[in-house]
Design goal:
This is Amino acid ABC transporter substrate-binding protein (PAAT family). By secondary structure, the chain is of the alpha/beta class. Helices cover about 35% and strands about 20% of the residues. It is globular.
Length: about 300
């Protein structure tokens, strides 16, 4: 077994990584330093967000800090994961190096306010595109499609196989998330416990405070990978969760630029390489077919 950089990050969360023997994981570790090439001598139309950021040589990105595989703070205080790599790809296309990105933690409940208030230039944080959010902000992407699933204690002692089995059970999710809203709206007989981050849900499942945790399958996969003796994924996704990049509403030029950059990353393999060295490394999965961007 080889211990990847994620082991240290998971340990920092109090989660023990007990196995990483996949070929995908080993290949990902070997490719860990293969990040996007930073563009030189970039030029953008004056007045656009791209021109302003390129001139500044830096940008602020909101992401999660507690989600293995997508956005997880490592011991040195820098987030790592697929979301983080997507942000680096976009920044690099504006001539901004990874070390010039300022990372801000965005939990599910504060993503729209942080964009609206200008506290971040964009949010890449397992951020599901939906119509309610599009009333306040705009999305580029999607760059990945997940599905809501359920995590239970290892051995599944309560026999939970899908959302219908949550009736009367205590299920945990986070404030401001689409999974929480789905449970509240479509499965009202479940008893919903809400925290601000999913790591607290994992702790609650460990100590028996809740019977199950629900959110997107890729997030739960990271938590299970960190504690395979304690957690189990039901493996029955029941929603579609297209992940987008949140930006200020009405910034059409920036949205088009990000969408163009994503499509280029799909074509040249940068997107797949980012998956292989992050989420793919801990889930032992090959890079999926990238989704079509939605230029709504």
């Amino acid at each position: 077994m080889r211990i990847t950089r994620y082991a240290a990050g998971l340990a920092a969360l109090g989660i023990v990584l007990t196995g990483c023997s996949s070929e995908a994981g080993n290949q990902a570790e070997e490719a860990a330093e293969g990040t996007a090439e930073v563009a030189e001598d970039v030029e953008f139309e004056a007045g656009t967000t791209m021109a302003e950021l390129a001139e500044a040589g830096s940008m602020t990105v909101g992401t999660k800090f507690d989600q293995p595989g997508f956005g997880l703070l490592n011991p040195s205080g820098t987030p790592e994961g697929f979301d983080v790599e997507i942000a680096k790809i976009i920044a690099a296309e504006m001539g901004i190096a990874a070390e010039d990105i300022e990372w801000t933690e965005t939990v599910s409940a504060n993503r729209e306010p942080f964009i609206e208030n200008g506290q971040v230039d964009m949010v890449v944080a397992t951020y599901t595109i939906n119509d309610a959010r599009k009333e306040r902000i705009d999305f580029a992407g999607p760059y990945y499609e997940a599905g809501q699933d359920i995590m239970v204690a290892a051995g599944n002692p309560l026999g939970i196989e899908g959302p219908e089995d949550l009736a009367g059970k205590n299920v945990c999710s986070v404030e401001g998330s689409t999974p929480a809203e789905t449970i509240r709206t479509d499965y009202p007989e479940a008893q919903l416990t809400l925290f601000d981050v999913y790591s607290k849900c994992a702790d609650a499942l460990t100590n028996g405070q809740v019977d199950a945790v629900t959110t997107d399958n890729v997030i739960l996969t990271g938590l299970v990978a960190g504690n395979p003796d304690g957690f189990e994924l039901v493996g029955n996704p029941f929603t579609e969760e297209p992940y987008g990049i949140g930006i200020e509403k009405g910034d059409q030029e920036f949205r088009d630029f990000i969408n163009d950059t994503l499509e280029q990353a799909y074509e040249d393999g940068t997107w797949a390489a980012a998956w292989d060295r992050t989420a793919g490394a801990i889930s032992d999965t090959e890079a999926p077919e990238p989704p079509d961007v939605d230029r709504y």
